[in-house]
Amino acid sequence: MPRAPESILISAGEASGDYYAAELLDHLRRKWPDCKFFGCAGQNLRGRGAEPIIRTEELAVVGLVEVLRHIPRIWLLYRKLVAETIARKPALAILTDSPDFHFRVAARLKRAGIPVVYLIAPQVWAWRRGRVKTMRHIIDCLLCIFPFEEAFFRERGVPVRYIGHPLASRVRPSMSREEFFRKHNLPADRPMVAVLPGSRRSEALRHLPELKKAAEILARDREVSFVLPASPTCGAEFFRESLAGSKIRAIEGEAWDAMAHCDVALAASGTVTVEAALLGAPMVTFYRVTPLSWAIGKVLVDVPFYSMVNLIAGQKVVPELMQNDMTGERIASEAGRLLNDGPERAKMKAALRTVASGLAVAADPMQLAADEVVRVFQTRGTP
Question: Which one is the CATH code of 177-358: 3.20.20.70, 1.10.287.1490, 3.40.50.2000, 1.25.40.10?
């Protein structure tokens, strides 16, 4: 029988990566039921039995400037994870998200002879392209989820495999619109706006003031229900004080249902915009960081669009209100246009269907990822 690994490092630096890594772990367990998984584990990985040497939540910092004060703490987490990994000598490592953290982990593991599979390609095509040279030396297999990425990395000598977007076959509502509205006592004759301020507490707090203004403005001309499906990293209780007296109501989870059944989504730029596209939700996207982070980012980032939906489409499909453009007035204006204009909404929904179809592949992306992990172990894995 083919040999099986005794242990594998699996490390997720963000909540979305934790979700994908946990899905991959499920597939690998079917192949190697006795393999032990350990590493940087979030809620999903821990729930699948991965041993947390450190926790994903400890790395959740956003912004170029904001991360500076956390560097000493993150350095200690890096040292702890690497030391434990070197001591255990796993057959291979699976790293997801947080390239600034995981590139350093990968370089150290490669020197120790541990092969590295990188799940979800970092967006070096957008900024810091010089890191591609580093990737050639520290990654044995790069798994990318957006169709335009494969050619970019292959042309630059990085071993790459396009697996399709894992969410393409998974994102779906769990209940009908009628059931969702009835569960949350929402009037059936009112439009519903899904408010998605970001999965991290820091970004949600940064975005909430303008989102509350937008809700107030939109509610002046029409009766609207505003629902904020709180992420697991925030929880609905986190928003209780911030939303006191607001038109926006926080609920626990159910983001996919909220997006699937909303008339318009107000979505922080990130993975949630891809989820909204897959669910066919017309949306207005936004994002804001500190002024210094924005100034630095403007110099470093080289992309025609900020929203992943627009990048995949290769054209402006959804509005992007970034930094100073992210105001309650601008958000309300764009959202109001979609609420008032049926043809405009229909046009956006048609474009979103095209985006969604481009993210799907025939096979299960996580099965393809698992096949690549097996290949890397069989060809480069340590005994």
Answer: 3.40.50.2000
